[in-house]
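INPUT
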Amino acid sequence: MRPYPPEPFRIKTVESIRQISREERESLLKAAGYNIFGLRSEDIYIDLLTDSGTGAMSDRQWAALMQADEAYAGARSYYKLAEAIGNIFGHKFFVPTHQGRAAEHILSTLLIKPGNAIPSNTHFDTTEANIRARDGKPVNLAIDEAADPTNHHPFKGNLDAEKLEVFIQEVGVEKIPLGMITITNNAIGGQPVSLENMRQVSEIYRYHGIPFFIDACRYAENAYFIKQRESGYENKTILEIAQECFALSDGATMSGKKDAMVNIGGFLTMNNEDLHQQACNELVLREGFPTYGGLAGRDLEAMAVGLWEGLDEAYLSYRVGQVGYLAQGLLEAGIPIVEPPGGHAVYIDAQRFLPHIQRDEFPGQALSVELYVEGGIRGVELGSVSFAYTDPETGEKHYPLMELVRLAIPRRMYTQAHMDFVIETLARIAERRESIRGYRIAYAPRLLRHFTAKFEPL
Ligand code: PM9
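OUTPUT
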């Protein structure tokens, strides 16, 4: 029997979900242009589209909402959040933002000029789009092992330090206004980054005088993996590990909707005072006054509590264990996934699952449609629909490392029986996989096309 970690919580409030008929699902999908983002949530049985802002808040977070201070300037809730961020992240300054991409937007606006290049292990879609929106170039320098879904490297999210050195020599420091690293590495399997790797990368960035920003959305899950897998950290607390990570950097972008356990919120941290001043100016223009940044006082309050809850080791052990349970079940059912599983999601290798569908016919898109048709389950394509890109200068088409479908597990939401249902659904799809066909794109915007594209079955 696969081990399932008992939840370190009990359930106080429930939300009904229902399964509609297969015929209804087929017709709703067609009406949505075969894009699962176009479906209504009430027509979905198990929603694994994202772990972003979809989790359950705790009784303490709900209680904190009532204690929030909604003052326009200088709210008590802001200072509570400042204390949590100061403790955990340790950077000198921060601005609250309504979510992660708003922090990315401010950072990109302030630092990136046309023709600049920004290295990372792998940028996630919103980061990539914010860089491109400034006519910059996002550059992914993951280690080679990351491209092999069967490779069991313990830190497959690592950035290849040698590739980074070569890249800096080739491009020139003057064209690199900042360097990044994403923890965990969401685009390629939610894989962790080791502290050793972050130290190496930080040294390289610092040597060249390149400001180093961490995309910190899932920093607590990353710290948990470091504690489990990196020698020398087994006796450190998750907080100590997180602090050590951030001490290597000059700042961070954070989506509170992930490891800060909230439904909305984010922030941008930095050590540079001048950058902070400029960020405040941008914030006032677009998001709100610097002590609320586009959020209500209650959102700041919930995030301050959630940041601490996200660091709880019993919770993290359950969280990573639940993802591991789903991964193990899928492997036992013969479903190819990215191994080892990451911290927040299981990534199905759609290319190996549907080898008869070419990359340009989007195997991940085809599988995400089948998941909904078969079981009312929503996952998300993270393959060529989301990440393939035609270089405007050369006309050359670039593909992502893999064609994946991600099953992201919202925090503190679904049970073992839900996970079993997902496994059984995929096992049924596997039985008829040869009959599944690819898709073509009927409409797509220039950036972040996967959110609103329309498809036609081939
Ligand atoms: N990630 C996710 O589902 C939500 C958008 S795509 C459905 O994984 C990283 C590593 C992320 C991320 C969002 C953001 C942006 C930045 N970096 O969604 O703007 O995974 O709060 O954060 C999503 P926001």
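end of record. Residues 22-51+316-457 form a domain with the Aspartate Aminotransferase, domain 1 fold (CATH 3.90.1150.10).
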